């Protein structure tokens, strides 16, 4: 039997992803399939974005994160044609980080809810994360998320499908 290649670990080894702080998350659709926007190729500016039924389901799910996880706040997000960017903030005021869910738990449940509502999985395995280290980085990511739709055709995840 042929050995399968080992996947690179997506999470930072030994880091507690329930720790207070900000996290930049990117979740992609399988095969970069454009399912969240109507007419993703003709989009020129933010105002032209119309979410598909699947995009509306994702939007509802994202907006419900804080109601399911009191220690998690969605500071900013954007739904792109084939991926979602989230700026999540973990803030456990209780002094016990164990009460805060891990970022992986939040994303797994978000993807699971969207999958259940759509009726089939649209997601690539896992997700990308960046632990935000300071205010400057936070502000840069905030701007990146805000401007991502305008820059869609230059995006590394751009797909004309």
Order of helices and strands: EHHEEHEH
Q: What is the helix content?
A: 25-40%
Shape: globular
Q: Which residue ranges are poorly predicted, with pLDDT under 50 across at least 5 consecutive positions?
A: none
Structural class by secondary-structure content: alpha+beta
Helix segment tally: 4
Strand content: 15-25%
- CATH architecture level-2 label: 2-Layer Sandwich
Provide a compact summary of the structure.
Helices cover 27% and strands 17% of the residues. It has one domain (27-150): Transposase IS200-like (Alpha-Beta Plaits).
What report would you give on this structure?
The protein is an alpha+beta fold and 161 residues long. The protein has a single domain (27-150), classed as 2-Layer Sandwich (Alpha-Beta Plaits), CATH 3.30.70. It is built from 4 helices and 4 strands, in the order βααββαβα. Strands 2-3-1-4 form a 4-stranded antiparallel beta sheet, sandwiched between helices. The longest helix is centred in the C-terminal third of the chain and has 16 residues, at 103-118. It is globular. 24% of the residues are buried.
């Amino acid at each position: 039997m042929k050995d399968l290649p080992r996947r690179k670990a997506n999470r930072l080894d030994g880091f507690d992803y329930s720790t207070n702080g900000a996290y930049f998350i990117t979740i992609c659709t399988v095969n970069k399939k454009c399912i969240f926007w109507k007419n993703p190729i003709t989009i020129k500016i933010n105002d032209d974005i119309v979410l598909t039924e699947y995009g509306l389901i994702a939007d509802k799910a994202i907006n419900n994160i804080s109601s399911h996880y009191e220690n998690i706040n969605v500071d900013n997000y954007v739904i792109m044609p084939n991926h979602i960017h989230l700026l999540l903030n973990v803030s456990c005021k209780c002094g016990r980080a164990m009460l805060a869910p891990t970022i992986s738990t939040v994303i797994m449940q978000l993807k699971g809810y969207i999958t259940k509502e759509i009726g089939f999985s649209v997601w690539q395995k896992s997700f990308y994360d960046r632990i935000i280290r300071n205010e400057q980085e936070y502000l840069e990511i905030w701007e990146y998320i805000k401007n991502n739709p305008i820059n869609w055709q230059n995006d590394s995840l751009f797909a004309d499908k």
